[in-house]
Amino acid sequence: MVIRENTPIAYKEFIRYLNKIFSLSMNDIRNIIKDFHSEMYKGLSGFESSLKMIPSFTDRAKGTEKGKFIAVDLGGTNFRVISVELDGKGEFSVSAVNKYVIDKQYMEGSGEQLFNFIANGIKSFMEWNNISFNKKLELAFTFSFPVEQTNIAAGKLLTWTKGFSASNVVGEDIVVMLNEALRRIGIKNLKVAALVNDTVGTLVAKSYTEPSCDVGVILGTGTNACYPEKMANIKKWRGISPKETMIINIEWGNFDKLPITVYDKVVDAASLNPGCQRLEKMVSGMFLGEILRVLVRDLIKRDLIFQDKSAVNAFSRHSSLKTKEMDLIEADTSNNLGDVEAFLAKVGIKNVTLESKKLFKHIGKLIASRSAKLAAASIAAVVLWMDPEIKNSHTIGIDGSLFEKYPGYKKMMKNVFKSLFKKDAKHIVLESTKDGSGVGAAIIAAIATSTEG
């Protein structure tokens, strides 16, 4: 953003301050990578760490997995039920998809109510798509929250994230809860064959069609990543190693070795889990709009944006500014920023100067740019952990609306890799893996059932 020479000193200084606190230098990024590696090592060794480094009990796909499966994908404020068929030749087809919005009453009610709602969604899906209630079917369950797995079809919820707080679920086996909910409504032919984190599902789905994929990432409502780790490096593993490598669910949303601003502190304090999920609260789509809202309110109170003091009421409600609206604002490249003005008018802010519109867009860009740089730094840390000299090709399978829809987000990430790795940046390829987690869960269910056989 260009600050004119005749701009008041206080305005200039505060914008420079914002530019500074939301910027990340290459030295900052290198320090983040160093700290990320330290936390990865501690997490794999069983020491206290902000990175859980959870074994997933599965590995990447071979491309030969085959069969028909129902997959349930619970990732945020909605869940999907899909029917997937794997052909065993690296290709798959999705014959049906139903999406169900999860009301706040289920997100914040009892665990039994939440799982009853999910089970009824599955029943509705089966009825809608004429799927038999008599023929035995394997169910793949993508559950996108921190879970400590004890085998491929068992795991206890460690903590809720993404605005969920349903009671009597933390510490319980998620698979048991879903199986019991299915039995309560009379569905006896379905059984959960695989419990999968969405990022693990994304990696497995992409590796089914692209063998060079070795990192799965979620950049949407929440954020997380996974990668295949050598069993010898998983020091906390007890018992016989089932295979040479296993996918590790990093749970990187909780990474906390990061420089934070006063605005991040305000957003954190008002969240359902203060002090937790620091990286997620600085990167993910659930929180970017809220950071912008908090920052704009501060600017209004300082008389630095929007002349009308009543404008503060437009952004008074928690989470009233969404990241999808930031997408729209960033996409406006017109000289008069007409779309930005239309959005502001819609929320009750009128007679806005061009300078205020530019500032509104600028601070949104600062917040999104930091998000993209943090995401890229975290991916770089994982790639360097596996391949310190970046000798091999690494396809990064990424699912999530932030990566897919925010204008320029992918380019901002790639710029970090170019600055870090120079010519070797070409070895890191970012590929959208839209809705991959459900397909990945089906593939993992195929692996699990073939192993049983």
Low-confidence stretches: none
What proportion strand? 15-25%
The arrangement of helices and strands along the chain is: HHEEEEHHEEEHEHEEEHHHHHHEHHEH
CATH architecture of the domain at 54-197 and 436-452: 2-Layer Sandwich
Biggest β-sheet: strands ordered side by side in the sheet: 1-11-10-9-12-13
Distance between the termini: 62 Å
Principal-axes shape call: globular
Q: Can you count the helices?
A: 15
Q: What is the CATH superfamily label of the domain at 54-197 and 436-452?
A: ATPase, nucleotide binding domain
* Category from helices, strands and their pairing: alpha/beta
Name of the top-level CATH class of the domain at 54-197 and 436-452? Alpha Beta
Give Rg in angstroms: 23 Å
Major sheet: size, sense and barrel closure?
Answer: 6 strands, mixed
- Name the average pLDDT: 90
Helical residue percent band? 40-55%
Structure description:
The chain has 453 residues and is α/β, with parallel strands linked by helices. It has a domain at 54-197 and 436-452: Nucleotidyltransferase, domain 5 (2-Layer Sandwich), CATH 3.30.420. Helices cover 43% and strands 19% of the residues. It contains 15 helices and 13 strands. It has helices at 9-21, 26-45, 104-107, 111-128, 174-184, 198-209, 262-269, 278-283, 285-301, 323-331, 338-346, 354-386, 401-405, 409-421, 436-452, and strands at residues 54-55, 66-74, 78-87, 92-101, 137-143, 147-151, 154-157, 190-196, 213-219, 223-230, 245-249, 394-399, 428-432. The strands form three sheets. Strands 1-11-10-9-12-13 form a six-stranded mixed sheet, sandwiched between helices. It has a five-stranded mixed sheet with strand order 4-3-2-5-8, sandwiched between helices. The chain is globular, with a radius of gyration of 23 Å. The N and C termini lie far apart (62 Å).
